[in-house]
Fold this protein.
Amino acid sequence: MRAFYNGIKTMKVRDLPAYVKPMLTLNKAKQTIGKGLDMYHDKYIETNSADPIFHICIGGMIFFYLVNLPEERRHLAHQEKLAAGHH
């Protein structure tokens, strides 16, 4: 992120799309994700850390909270409508 910021901080706005466009290709995304997974593997898996278990648990809770959020909001709105006396 710092390298990206340092690359664009002296750039003119009209030059920005030409600088950013090569970074938004499918191959670049695959390389970046692969590099991130390799770094994660080196940091947590190779060291026999328990952190990946916590990452899965917390990530799962966040994911299912976000999936269930619209239904919870509808339920809350319905309860508020009933409390206000409207059916």
